[in-house]
Backbone:
């Protein structure tokens, strides 16, 4: 059985890329498309990135090719993007308010994808993938403080400030705007749902944030 995995960065051309992928898959005789999407994908989401996930998910579902749609929450590993300020000042800055979010280790997302690609029984399924608990980012900061021995603080910032900082760091306007927008959407509290997908699909319990934090502590400068 020919299977492919499709993942792409958030980009204004996502719909065209999926259209091209589906056309090429049909020519190649692909029988299963495993597509990375996003948790909470719905047509009226307050984020263009999330709305585009819905559109491209539906394109795959309507292609006539069997599919597995993998919809994870945000990743523990996104914290690496804040490592410079964590090291420099013991703070990380995100426009995520005090919302709880069931963030997940990207390695557990990968394990679900590998299962879909290598084992039968995942055809025409949509998997919502989360970590084992829902934490605020202030709670994440508390865990990081405990395991690293360095005082670390989460600082909530306005969406506009996050967008300006990303642009100042060299990010293109479209990406900065849409990433700030999706984080502001997360901040509304839509992403606290905890699922059992990782264990159900892979047979392994998902990693906890604390387990990730203990690894992450190795790159935190005291």
Residues:
């Amino acid at each position: 059985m020919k299977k492919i995995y499709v993942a792409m960065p958030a980009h204004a051309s996502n719909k065209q890329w999926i259209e091209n992928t589906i056309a090429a898959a049909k020519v190649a005789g692909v029988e299963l498309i495993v597509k990375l999407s996003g948790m909470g994908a719905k047509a009226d989401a307050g984020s263009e990135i999330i709305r585009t996930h819905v559109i491209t998910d539906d394109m795959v579902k309507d292609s006539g090719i069997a599919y597995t749609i993998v919809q994870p929450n945000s990743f523990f590993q996104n914290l690496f993007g804040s490592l410079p300020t964590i090291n420099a000042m013991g703070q990380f800055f995100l426009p995520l308010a005090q919302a709880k979010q069931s963030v997940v280790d990207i390695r557990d997302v990968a394990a679900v994808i590998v299962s879909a690609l290598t084992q039968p029984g995942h055809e025409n399924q949509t998997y919502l993938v989360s970590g084992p608990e829902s934490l605020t980012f202030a709670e994440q900061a508390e865990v990081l403080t405990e395991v690293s021995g360095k005082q670390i603080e989460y600082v909530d910032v306005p969406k506009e400030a996050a967008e300006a900082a990303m642009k100042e760091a060299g990010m293109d306007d479209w990406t900065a705007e849409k990433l700030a927008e999706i984080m502001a959407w997360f901040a509304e509290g839509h992403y606290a749902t905890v699922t059992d997908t990782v264990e159900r699909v892979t047979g392994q319990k998902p990693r906890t944030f604390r387990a990730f934090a203990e690894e992450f502590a190795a790159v935190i400068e005291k």
Remarks:
- Residues 26 and 64 are 9 Å apart (CA to CA).
- The first strand starts at residue 3 and ends at 6.
- The beta strands are 3-6, 32-36, 66-72, 91-94, 125-129, 153-156.
- The mean pLDDT is 96.
